Amino acid sequence: MSLSRLFFAVMFLCFCALSPVQSHPVGEAIGNTAHALRTWTNTATKTSHVGTFLLIHKDEVFLEDAAGKVIALPYSTLSVADRAIADEHRERIRTLNRSPEFTRLAFTAPVLARPSAIVHNDAVSLTILGIGGVLTLILLGLFGVGTLQLLRNRRLSLRVSIYAASTALLLALLFLVSPTEPIHLLAQTLNVYSKGIAYPIPVANIRSLKLNPKVVISSTLSSTAMSFDVSAVDSMKIISTTTDPALMDAAFAPYKPSVTTSWDDTYFYAAGNGIPAQHNMMIGITAWIAQVPIPHPYTGTNKWSIPLKPELAASPLSIRTNFMKGAIAIAVNGLPIFNALNAGGEDSKAKGELDQWGGHCGRADDYHYHVAPLQFEATSGLKPIAFALDGYAVYGGKEPDGTAMAALDQYHGHTGDNGVYHYHGTTTSPYMIEAMRGKVSLDPRTTAPENQIIPQAMTTPLRMTPYPINPNSTITNLTANAAGNGYLLEYTTAGKKGSVNYSWTGNGLTGSYTFTFTDTDGKVTVQTFQR
């Protein structure tokens, strides 16, 4: 074949390559309305912006207006409707990333900053690779011919030089002129489950994004699927489910000031003295071993901590083989909720160990719940009644939008319409949580089933050996004294009445306690304890 014919063959192949190659438009699954122009309201500044959803980055929602200008709005200042739409977009992208169609794009090793083809559609990949291979071989052949000319004639043939330069130019045009505008970009992490963010922006602007080096950006182009190296940039926070602390605070608000709240970038904190101001305690317990409610210092650095950035666990830990020690959730009045099973692995409620609110006192005379306090629905309405220590909310018998509770999964919860997981409290076992759906940190000093979640507020027993009372006793009343620094607890055993009258000095967190025990035979015993 003459060099002229070879040159025209190369030109023909290049122009064929420049023609659009059809591939499966995976991004279309997001829907035609995912990036439609709409009005977004900043409730803090009372301003409105018309734009399309781009992404959520560092707790900011990025929009693009009709002119292509990028607008950043704090997520927390958006209206409830706008936040719901932003969450919907984010969850839709996560769903796409988890679908089998995209599993092949989950991770590719970092490549050069220049795009390089990855396997996405077999036909497309073979076409591109075939054309590229042919062009590469031709270019190498021309280079070889030119080199031979140089060795033989001590100079490079002008014709060969022109052909080689033309071929190189056509190759450059192939990459520059070929369509490179993505339909969508999907960001995926190396986590067990994917957290995706949509970037409907030109590929040319990809360098302006600050991405985590572990993220691979895969785009579906009109010609092929490409992978871009992001190892040279950093500092992007991959979005996970971040709970709005202001919304959490609204859930605790009806129970203040008996509970105080605060938060930082990692945790939402609930503080109190361990005594519920909203309801009575202990009444109705039929299996009792003489513990009574006293104040506890759940304050300062000993507050209850709820993660603000919960993450779904790959292998949720069951409450039946874990967490027999410590709390697994915090009610919105600031009191802890323990495992529905007691230390012996038995159903505390079924054993008669709980009062009408689902609570009782532990070995440290610490009042806590073992089931979700569903009575709080009367005050909380559609807000959460508790938050699990994995960070996910606990609702009552209705969904957050007021509809009837949807079917629950094997963990006793489900993903809500906003794309965020939550639990539900019920009147039947497991009452609140079957397994901890989110990731939790375990106290290394404990082992299953007596392990516990950390961070965890702690307290110490006031009385190491409680005064023995028949465990078949039924508590009939608990009345606060006039001074507000103690209680009178009354109970019956086999039809006979007994009582425990106790009080403390100061706020009960320090100082002395005095207990007067009157058993069912009328015997009186007085004991004092120092904190």
What's the SSE blueprint?
Elements: H1 3-18, E1 38-42, E2 47-57, E3 60-64, E4 70-74, H2 80-98, E5 116-117, H3 122-153, H4 158-177, E6 185-188, E7 216-220, E8 225-228, H5 245-252, E9 260-263, E10 267-271, E11 304-307, E12 312-318, E13 327-331, E14 336-338, E15 359-361, E16 367-369, H6 377-380, E17 386-388, E18 393-395, E19 413-415, E20 421-424, E21 435-438, E22 441-442, E23 453-454, E24 474-480, E25 486-493, E26 496-504, E27 512-518, E28 524-530
Parallel strand pairs: 18-20
Antiparallel strand pairs: 1-2, 2-3, 3-4, 5-8, 6-7, 7-8, 9-10, 10-11, 12-21, 13-14, 13-17, 15-16, 17-18, 19-20, 22-23, 24-25, 25-26, 26-27, 27-28
Mean pLDDT: 76
Give the termini separation. Answer: 101 Å
Number of strands: 28
Uncertain runs are 17-34, 101-126, 178-240
Q: Which range does the strand content fall in?
A: 25-35%
Structural class by helix and strand composition: alpha+beta
Helix fraction? 10-25%
The description of the largest β-sheet is: 6 strands, mixed
Report the total helices.
6
Strand order of the largest sheet: 14-13-17-18-20-19
Radius of gyration: 33 Å
Indicate the overall shape.
elongated
